[in-house]
Amino acid sequence: MTVATPTPASAHPPRLPLSVAEARTRYLGGRGYLAACTLGLPTIDTIAAMRADAEKWARGEACAAGYAEVVERVRIGFADLVGVTPDRVAIGSQTSVMAAVVAASVPDGAEVLVPTGDFSSMVFPFLAQAHRGVVVRQVALADLAPSVTANTWLVAFSLVQSATGTVADADAITASARRHGAFTLCDTTQATGWMPVDAARFDATVCHSYKWLGAPRGVAFFTATSAFADRLNPANAGWYAGEDVWGSCYGPAMSLAADARRFDVSPAWPAWVGAEPAIDLFRSLDLAEVRAHTVRLGDALCDGLGLARLGQAIVSWPDAGGTDLARLTAAGLTASGRAGRARVAFHLWNDSDDVARAVAALRP
User: Fold this and answer.
1) Which one of 8, 58, 206, 315 is least enclosed by Cβ atoms within 10 Å?
2) For residues 102 and 114, is the Cβ–Cβ distance under 8 A?
């Protein structure tokens, strides 16, 4: 049985744009929840879809073919969300696993350039190639673009830094990479969902959807241009990467998909059921409006704390002892601490009341 790929029109009929205010009504809670950068919240639709799927499974009515149709609809939806065609999207469960496919394909002795302090899922897979002579050079994010040289094979970076929320200068990085003949791999996990993301500007991207997209953990995506994909070895190839998925369950022959599906990792089925309404919600939004909403709240917090405005959805500041994080927690707010910093994030469900509560907790 070959996986049937529905057309975009039949899988996702056109809909009217949804405003941020309307999107807020899709959540059960969120008041005081400032941790989308750690774990997103599900919508009512995602909760309902997963509950219905669990009940269907319990009745013995769930089937692999049905899940495969869901996966293909989500693939199409994500492709539309980030501006690429579905044939350029591979599916999996973790960003590190997908980054590892790229890392395993870096030529022996080649250089990979990464920002210092980037999330380990974008660093460790490349450090693990040291036995082949792969060199990982780490520089400050602000120095990434000017640090690309003719020796650089790949620039791997997160579009939004996990620890600080800093937005990388993707235009400068990609332009520098092109000038020096280097490829780009961008992790959009901390960006996709609160700001517009164009995956087509990079040679490859990875994205986990359990943060800003509010999907269940275990739904991740990999995009690649055809030219870059041809340089990659599908090291994780399994039955789901086959041209004919259901005809690829047993050896000895291997016939992988000709497009990005050859990098697919078999999906954790129930998670994709929850991901479908999550991805559909964000496809319905004007992400420029979402960015304006989140940045407005982030900048308002900076104003209240006497910090320079950052223009970010994630706001973090030094908090080595965890004092500020403890104050936020004591005030009933959910925040996080990373790399010796307190970290808060604003998303669809947040408003100015959340900013006021955070300022009151930190500056009583």
Assistant:
1) 58
2) no
* Length of the chain as a residue count: 364
**Residue pair 17/284 in contact by the 8 Å Cβ criterion:** yes
Helix (DSSP H) and strand (DSSP E) numbers for the chain: 13, 10
Determine the Cα–Cα distance for residues 232 and 130; give it in Å rounded to an integer: 18
Helices 44-58 and 269-283: angle between axes, nearest 10 degrees: 150
User: Which domains does the chain carry?
Assistant: 68-283 (3.40.640.10), 287-362 (3.90.1150.10)
Asked if 102 and 231 touch (Cβ cutoff 8 Å), the reply is no
Using alpha carbons, select from 235, 6, 238, 252 the residue that is nearest to residue 101.
235
Element (H, E) at 337: strand 336-338
pTM over 0.90: yes
Alpha carbons 171 and 7: distance in angstroms, whole number: 32
Inter-residue contact 122 to 222 (CB < 8 Å): no
Residue 147 — pLDDT band, cuts 50, 70, 90? very high
Between the CA of residue 306 and those of 95, 297, 301, 302, what are the distances in Å? 35, 14, 8, 6
Q: Which residue type sits at 279?
A: I
Structure tokens belonging to residue 351:
């408003």
> How far apart, in whole angstroms, are the C-alpha atoms of residue 178 and residue 172?
10
Summarize pLDDT for 78-100 with one digit per residue, the tens: 999 999 999 999 999 999 999 99
